[in-house]
Specification:
Elements: H1 2-16, E1 21-26, E2 31-34, E3 39-42, E4 58-63, E5 66-70, E6 83-87, E7 90-96, E8 101-105, E9 116-123, E10 128-138, E11 149-155, E12 166-167, E13 173-174, E14 176-180, H2 190-201, E15 219-226, E16 229-237, H3 242-245, E17 257-261, E18 281-282, E19 285-289, H4 299-310, H5 313-323, H6 326-339, E20 349-353, E21 360-364, H7 390-398, H8 403-415, H9 421-437, H10 440-447, H11 455-479, E22 491-492, E23 499-502, E24 512-517, E25 522-527, E26 532-534, E27 541-547, E28 550-556
Helix pairs in contact: 2-6, 8-11, 9-11
Length: 557
Amino acid sequence: MKKNLFTVSFLISTLFCVSQTLNINISKDHFKIDQTRSLIISHIENIESFADLTSYTEVILFLDQVAYSFNTLPDSVTYKQSYTISNNSNQFTLYFTSLPIISIETANTIVDEPKVLANFVYADSEQIVTSKIGIEIRGGSSQSYPKKTYDLEFWEDNNGEDTHNVEFGSLRSDDDWILDALYNEPLRLRSYIANKLWLKLHTPYYLPVEPEAKAGANVDYTEIFLNGEYNGIYNLSEQVDKKQLKLKSYKDDIRGELYKGIAWGPAVFASLPDFDNNSRIWGGHEMKYPKEDDVTDWNNLYDFTDFVINSTDSDFVNNIWSKFNYDNYLDYFLFLNVLRATDNTGKNIYIAKYNTNEPYFYVPWDLDGCFGTIWNGTNQNITGDILINGFHNRVIELNPQNYLTDVSNKWLNHRNNNLKTNVLIDSIDKQYLFLSENKIYERESLIYPNYDFNEVDLLYMKTWIQNRLSYLDNYFQTLSLNHIDSTKSILYPNPATNKINIKYKKNLANKKYAIHNFLGQLVKKGELKSHSINIETLQQGNYIITLNNNYYKLIVK
């Protein structure tokens, strides 16, 4: 009897059950399939409308009208989980993404140079861009990585004789783009955050007359497929070039100038080799503008390098800020040291000039080795130093136009705005959370297991930044002459040679002292046992003595 009742009940419920099937349609170019890895990355329109699918008895995904069934009926569709779907006997792992998807197909071998023909498709929620492109591998040591960085140029024809501009999202319209692989970044977010940070910290001084000028390259994340295989997440990056900076065009004479630092040496103002105007390379720089078809003439940059290295102290102090933009110098010095970008003191930066008789300025580039890592992605947990080149060293030593106070005040201004500790930490947490929750780390790990992308790496990065900011706070406070007691100094003689005497006070007995150079490096420390401190081991230059929480300037001659 119980068995019969159960059967009747089942039949009745079946009779009144309403089958509901949900069909999700994804159009061509808004998804890509990696057949080798059985992996699908797809967009989906209005994903929030699929937050509750519990009323459906079947969900079918149509990718360009080809049906795929979910192996397990999903309760929702979200960016934050993966799905197993099947087409006939073929099974795939499916991820939905909010990032643009780029597909590049070529029958050619992609090499360092020259660019080879390929077909390009870009899709996001707003547009689809299809074009012929020229593509080549770019970079130095990064060319040995399994995940390559690429240079793209958008072509009208198969040979690249004519090009055309394209625009992606909020990025500029141009024919020349970079796909930055991020392979040596443990969290795939350092260069993204660094590029965005520079654009917040600095604007070109000539912006009133060139309102579209940018201080550097902007970037956006995208997901890449190359010849049908998933290549992971990339930065789609603008180029640093004449157009980006809005430099003045060549007109029978040099006006705007742009040089890329490609090697060490003169690029860090360490030497002054002869130049050859038959070459586009000199002293660690590559001439990017004027173009080779216009002119190759190194005289201007040579003269500036010569001035920085060899001018008299008086000439340097009086004239350096007419030759190099002061505000740019301050912002870049602070930016360089917040990041501790060890590969960006001369190499991997641009030096540019807007127009004839205008000052030079810096533009950062290739910002992957920063925030506690170096160029190859290795953690370097150093927070207590200052990065400089020969130019920086001379500015610090000679203090032209009260630079030491100005840079300290500039630091305080930025620390109250874009360089607040919580602002930087929040930007890191935001990007990490996005990449983690949206399963981008998960699918990146499927292809490139060189990093774990875990919270240990996140904690390291955030702790490093906190320690770095703390050190720089102390450094710039010490550096500022406004914080140094010069009218009531207890040091004599000053300048000194072998020892410095201290006007002895009882409250100084056995107090600890520390001597730092103007690069923030600790050169001597101890306890005050007498009326003097031996300074025989110190080289000539300027120092700061910290004693009983007071700062005193010391000159060693």
